[in-house]
């Protein structure tokens, strides 16, 4: 425990806790905080001025990060016939229909993303209670309920990040790995924030992004200037 405390103490010396960092400064600084024996994820946290208890203030969607996420993603697709063939050709690791639903019911879920064609969502509904809590339920808003399964598989493998505001108005997401260069992280950062801005509900009043922070998996966080993020169009 003392070792962990000392590590955090050393990292805190590299951060000005009173400062609101610009995006460029924030990315450059967070790269200096790497201290783990693995390739840490660069994480962004946003506090939005919305009340997601109201349906017209829910913020949910997906965005494909230009430099990818740095993670290898296993994709499962619920599809039949030609759509199943398209999913396999696009690189999906698992493709099936009733048999895949049976596997999920049996607790076999060796995948990170689940995609389904709209005509088979009735099947998926049978395992909704299993998929929902794990964040694996296909949804049109995240592009995982679609007839264009090939594109959905490509997006999932190519750096798609799904986001959803929690009950307190927070959004957390990984936007790359600390091993990425600054340009890659900046591209991902700006693409992600612009997606959040595009999803601003018309019912949201006042300052949309109240606060923002950047961190690594194992590091303290630094504060970002929320106004700079709001201005990203």
TrEMBL record:
The keyword rRNA-binding applies. Pfam families: Ribosomal_L1 (PF00687). The keyword NAD does not apply. Keywords: Repressor, Ribonucleoprotein, Ribosomal protein, RNA-binding, rRNA-binding, Translation regulation, tRNA-binding. GO terms for cellular component: ribosome. SUPFAM superfamilies: Ribosomal protein L1. Part of the 50S ribosomal subunit. Belongs to the universal ribosomal protein uL1 family. Protein L1 is also a translational repressor protein, it controls the translation of the L11 operon by binding to its mRNA. Binds directly to 23S rRNA. The L1 stalk is quite mobile in the ribosome, and is involved in E site tRNA release. This is Large ribosomal subunit protein uL1. The gene is rplA.
């Amino acid at each position: 425990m003392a070792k962990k405390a000392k590590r955090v103490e050393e990292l805190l010396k590299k951060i000005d806790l009173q400062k609101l960092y610009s995006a460029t400064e924030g990315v450059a600084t967070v790269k200096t905080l790497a201290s783990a024996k693995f390739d840490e994820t660069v994480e962004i946290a946003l506090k939005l001025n919305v009340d997601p208890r109201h349906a017209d203030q829910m913020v949910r969607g997906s965005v494909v990060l230009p430099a990818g996420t740095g993670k290898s993603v296993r994709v499962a697709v619920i599809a039949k016939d030609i759509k199943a063939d398209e999913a396999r050709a696009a690189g999906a690791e698992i493709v099936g229909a009733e048999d895949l639903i049976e596997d999920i019911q049996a607790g076999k879920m060796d995948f990170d993303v689940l995609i389904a064609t709209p005509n088979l969502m009735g099947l998926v509904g049978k395992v909704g209670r299993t998929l929902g809590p794990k964040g694996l339920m296909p949804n049109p808003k995240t592009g995982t309920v679609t007839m264009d399964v090939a594109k959905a598989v490509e997006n999932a493998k190519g750096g798609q990040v799904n986001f959803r505001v929690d009950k307190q108005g927070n959004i957390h997401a990984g936007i790359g790995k600390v091993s990425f260069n600054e340009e890659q992280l900046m591209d991902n950062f700006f693409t992600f924030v612009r997606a959040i801005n595009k999803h601003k509900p018309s019912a949201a009043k006042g300052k949309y992004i109240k606060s923002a922070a950047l961190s690594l998996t194992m590091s303290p966080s630094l504060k970002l200037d929320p106004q700079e993020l709001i201005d990203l169009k």
